[in-house]
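We modelled the chain as a single entity of 265 amino acids. Its sequence is:
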Amino acid sequence: MWIDTHCHLDAAEFGDENAAIAARALQQQVDWIVIPAVDVHNFEAVGRLANGQPNCTYALGIHPMCVPRASLADLAALRAAIPAALADPRFVAIGEIGLDFFLPALCTPEMREKQAHFYAEQLKIARDFGLPVLLHVRRSQDTILKFLRRIPPAGGIAHAFNGSAQQAAIFVALGMRLGFGGAMTFSRALQIRRLAQDMPLSALVLETDAPDIAPAWLHPARNSPEQLPQIGEVLAQLRGMTPAALAAATSSNARAALPRLALLG
């Protein structure tokens, strides 16, 4: 069994293929796919998609790249949506939330402040409802950690992790798992591969971030959750494990990070 802990299966790049893609992933033993929302306008879509496929779950949140167009009313809408979502067994987390200090448009003082406010308020929602978080941490690890210490959620995953070994250890100490995917498959990605190899196995989960971050053999084509087993094989090779043992370990870690996913089997 494999678990894709981060896949935007509702993205426009998939068109009307998402059901077929989920089915093909299931044939590849990708037994669960977690679909994070990015803003209030796709809350309904990710929930409907997850409930329409036997191997899909979802999270609700406002992505930092969507913060420029978001309003405070969107935060209220997210909080208001959680009680009903908790009645849906396919709902597993708050996400995708966090900070993006890579894109220039998001790095102005005004946008940094707005991102920080949205991130902090969504951490509070996760904390108040006892939910884990799916974190976007692009070039923002230290600031993400500052808020995590101040407003601790019920665990979660630092998605597409690309920080230092010291930062990785702090995330793990705060109860987070680290997500590894297509970037790890490039031989030149020395830091990511070193982390994937050296971090405790219990800290690692797998993801695709499809349709983005395609693995080396697919880049620059569209990524897909069907690629997860082959991505997992790369991690198994880095760690000197069999793919079966790696799949079992990372799937167990994903269930520990997302307890509502564990209830689904």
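As a brief sanity check on the tokenised model: The chain has one domain: 2-262. The longest strand covers residues 91-100.
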